[in-house]
Amino acid sequence: LDLRYNVLTDVGAKHIAKLLQENSSLRYLNLMFNEIGTSGAELIAKALHRNEALLYLRMTGNKIRNKGGMYFASMLQVNSTLEKLDLGDCDLGTQSLVAMATVLNQNKAIKAVNLSRPILYSQEEDTTVHIALMLKNNSCLVELHLCKHEIKNFGVEQLCEALYENCSLKYLDLSCNKITRDGVKFLGELLKRNQTLEILDLHSNRIEDDGAIYLSEALALYNGTLQALAVVSNNISGKGLVALSDALKTNTVLSYIYIWGNKFDEATCMAFSDVLKTGRLKPNCTDVDPYEVDGHIYLAELSHGLKKHYYWTPSYGPVVNKDANASLAIGAVSEHL
């Protein structure tokens, strides 16, 4: 049942809760960007205490706030069926994020969770620490979205320490945070030893050349599992981008790489033109396309990425476009998330 982009309020949530209580066949419910608030969240969450059918719930963009997030955390203590939960852009607070992390220590059903863009007032990264502790204990979670969590280098260090002990997480989304080259150093060390991660999204951070080099060293010599890397808009210049293209020559597993929004010089344009020309990188697996003007190679942008269509559906062409939503092609758990 897909009800996204409507004007369902808490009154509508009452009917949805009744449906969830009485229906034993509904598997997928998308309520993205309606007007459901805290009261509606309470009704839906309590209905899921007894529901044993729903596998995926998307609440994205409904302002259920901290209290609404607490209702869903309580629900996850009881519900053992739900596999995917999207609470992105729901104005969750510190308390509900900590509660969610605590509950996920025990929940064995949830495989994918989106907690992006909470409203945080502290710079202490308490929520990141709790999520890291959860990752040490959780052996079921495959996909985790922590976009816009104000994660800095300390937070990345905590997450990496936890992921040395985690053997299930395949997709880690750390986009739109405050990660610099020092934080990426921890990620580089993790990639040298981690044999699980398949997708790493770092777009809209500030890893710069040094960070790109840390990643490329790990990918070129040690890592054999990462399939997709997004470093869009990270203030990387030619030195770092060329290092990433060189890593592709020795790493045969990394198949998707997204680099738009960085500082392209001629060496970068030539390097990515070469890996595309040799067939090492397929044109539909990156977001740049080389072209030549007056004997010089330049790169144009392509509308490809890990989840370009997360917030919207294109007006033409296939709804599930694998080039624009590569995470769907790589991991089955990402479907609809």
Please render the helix and strand layout as text.
Blueprint (H helix, E strand, L loop, with lengths): L9 H13 L5 E3 L7 H10 L8 E3 L6 H14 L5 E3 L7 H10 L8 E3 L11 H12 L5 E3 L7 H11 L7 E3 L7 H13 L5 E3 L6 H14 L6 E3 L7 H13 L5 E3 L7 H12 L10 E6 L2 E6 L24 H5 L7
Parallel strand pairs: 1-2, 2-3, 3-4, 4-5, 5-6, 6-7, 7-8, 8-9
Antiparallel strand pairs: 10-11
Write out key terms for the chains shown:
337 residues, alpha/beta, Leucine-rich repeat, LRR (right-handed beta-alpha superhelix), two-stranded antiparallel ribbon, single chain, globular, 38% helix, nine-stranded parallel beta sheet
Spatial order of strands in the largest sheet: 1-2-3-4-5-6-7-8-9
Q: Determine the number of helices (DSSP H or I, runs of at least 4 residues).
A: 11
In N-to-C order, the SSE pattern is HEHEHEHEHEHEHEHEHEHEEH
Main β-sheet description: 9 strands, parallel
Overall spatial form: globular
Output the CATH topology: Leucine-rich repeat, LRR (right-handed beta-alpha superhelix)
Low-confidence stretches: none
CATH architecture: Alpha-Beta Horseshoe
Please, what is the CATH homologous superfamily? Ribonuclease Inhibitor
Total number of strands: 11
Number of spatially distinct domains: 1
- Roughly what percent helix? 25-40%
Mean of pLDDT: 94
Structural class by SSE content: alpha/beta
Distance between the termini: 15 Å
